[in-house]
Amino acid sequence: MPNLSQNGCSVWVTSSTELIQTPTAVALGKFDGVHRGHQRVIQPILHKSADTERIYPTVITFLPHPQEFFTGKTRTLLTPLDEKVRQLELLGVEQLVLIPFNKELSALTPEQFVEQIIVEKLQASRISVGQDFCFGSNRSGTTRDLQVLAAKYDIPVTIVPLETHEDDLPLQKDDTRISTSLIRQTLETGNIEQANRLLGRPYTLIGTVVKGQQLGRTIGFPTANLQLPEDKFLPQKGVYAVRVSEINQPDTTLTNRWGVMNIGNRPTVNGTYPTVEVHLLDWSGDLYNKKLQIQLEKFLRSEQKFDNLEALKSQIQLDCNTARKFFNRVC
To answer: Same domain, yes or no, for 124 and 235?
Structure first.
């Protein structure tokens, strides 16, 4: 696979084992979501070594997602590549290595994985993994196995306890682990506040503004139609209070703006496919081709069909008022 661009970030991203910057301090895992648990796993590799040798804090994950490889089914992600890189950059990670997950890799024994990947390719000086990390063929290698195998090469392994939550979540009655699957389930119910607590940050959509039907302009609520990565996981359909900023070439008038976002098929106008549209409160201007970051703060209501455009217009005004009250309360 070819080397991937750095997406305008300071994180070096590669899917070629020949282009890895070495030596490394390595955090191993899937890291979809870069949630609170993932952040704890990453922290140990950020600690500066007493050695004078340059060591690159590196996150190692797999492409495609192992579940996608084994099932053959496309999987949507909480953090597609571009977004994952941005989150890792904020944490202080300097390198993201996407190990091609294929038949050959999945067949490696734990011993072979450590020798060929950890030692030879990554030249790891230290490793950090979550308590539930498994590796090697049939996921046969445990964190204890990793410690024993890595010790043969004098590589210390930090095993990070699972991060837990205190929310009363009906989705996991006896399991308080923070996990990607739990966050996905929480987003599917529209419980944005809980999802954001589990993530340790607002759930975010990043997309480019493209031309839509421009229906919003005709009823006084112009919207930005967002084109998102195809593999981006979308929460429950409906209307959200959001914060909007431009990225890459920031417009100072487009920083942390309040807005109302709709995710859905637009049943009032007989829409047949899902769209993501954002109306910025108290702002006007040309948004076409701008890359926006949308942070979801509160779920306002489910998607619904109205009898006519006038009724839709009235509801959008109510949505805007509700969003303003919410932001005035939390700001």
So the answer is: no
- Of residues 277, 205, 283, the one with CA closest to residue 251: 283
Token digits for 321? 């008022």
Instruction: Name which of 254, 231, 233, 230 is nearest 242 in CA terms.
Output: 254
Q: Collapse the DSSP code of 182 into the 3-class scheme (helix H, G, I; strand E, B; otherwise coil) and give the result.
A: helix
Structure tokens at 6: 């750095």
Query: What CATH number is given to the structural domain containing 80?
Result: 3.40.50.620
The domain tally of the chain equals: 2
Provide the CB-side half-sphere exposure for 49 (13 A, CA).
Answer: 16
Beta carbons of 141 and 135 less than 8 angstroms apart: yes
Residues 283, 149 share a domain: no
CA–CA distance, 101 with 82 (Å, rounded to integer): 19
Q: What is the pTM of this model?
A: 0.88
Would you say residue 179 lies in a domain?
no
> Of all residues in the chain, what percent carry a pLDDT higher than 70?
88
